[in-house]
Amino acid sequence: MTENGTVPTVCVCNAVDTLRLLAGRARRPGESDAIVSEAFPQQDQSLFWLPTAKLILTEVPMAHLDWQCELLDLHGVLNLSPAVPTGSIFDDIIEDEALLQGLLDYVGPGRRFRLIPHTTTPGLWEFVRRMSDRFQVQVELPESCASQDLRDRLDTKSGFRALVTECGLGEARARTAEGAECRSHEDAVEAAARITATGRTCILKPDRGEASVGLITVRPSEPPDGVLRRLRESPYFGEHEPVVVEEYIEGEGVTFPSVEFTVPADLQRPPTLTHVCEMLFGEPTQVRGNVTAGSLKDEPWYEPFVASATVIAAALQVRGYRGHFGIDAVALPDGTVFMLDLNSRRTGSTHLHDFGLHFLGPERAEDTAIGHYDFYQLPRPTGLAALLQALEPVVRSPRDHTEGVVPCELTGLVHGRLSCVIFAPTLDRFHQLVQQTEQLLEPMRAAPVGSQRRASATAKEGSRT
To answer: What is the reported pTM?
Structure first.
């Protein structure tokens, strides 16, 4: 127990645990590491998960955490990591003596803590058992689904499509796209041909895919033998693994909304819609960020999407699911929604909702656009001092300003990747700040490495005066 009698909170940032299984299939040198490093900095999003005062366990230390806490006036944040990460953070916690002792010290004599993981995985349950058996520590899991099989099934493309059908949403305004679950490469090619024969494009998805890894887009002009060859050559489609084939929804004016719910274990308490947001894309399958705002309620997709998602949330609760889940979708201008997949975990926008609640409060958060955006092609590595010098016109704390840019996910700077939480009075202003940040970063992208080092040194000297 903590000094005020509450149970301490520990967050385990295993955001890439399931992605590693897919990325590990990559054949080209460096491809697996590139896939993982793209998503890896998401561990830093946990800084904003509520409560803010907590112990955060990450595979590698969160870069520049002290600076972020100072900017945002956050207190009680502790971050620990294994000396040599193995790729399984739950195993690392037990096997790394210093990390384990740090956790036990944080938990204290009460021998009890709340554990919030990014994703509930089989490794979690073994960790909980070992903490109880070896150290007599009770681990509370307020948002982990007790059935691992249920959680994992929902996280597949085919499992989600089946759930939508079981919920009677096959003809709803918010539904899944036309498609099929295929048990062989040959069946997938046939399903693709049925869609492309009508002049439409389709997309082939690994059933357990995530982060857009391995997707194959098939245009009407592509012959079936070419599609079959691409499937067989891809390491992400096993010969006897399901392939989901769907119409690829595209066109003028399409948007990409998502919703997130929390599902309580108590059947007397209904699931809660925490927020809706729009996904922001660079390339067609590259998510660059998300943005949430109260004004999204006025979008034509809002009512049908929330209605279908509410039905799904209720069905999940009856099946025994609990915790966070999100649904990603694509929407046509008339409000027709095609739901793409379900993420049975915290999502890439959970931290935005919590950021708004903590720094702005419920009412102000409702009237503010809060999003995050990823910026690439920065020098490798990028120094914090040089970055702050470049972004000085826009970096602001939400405690003191109505709009601004908060650099975060700073662990990605070593790979030339930056993510920023951006808050603004309106969606239009949010997008303007995204563009302004891009422009402010452009000189860093163009500058030789040596000049960036000189800029960092100058900024550090200035900070001492």
So the answer is: 0.92
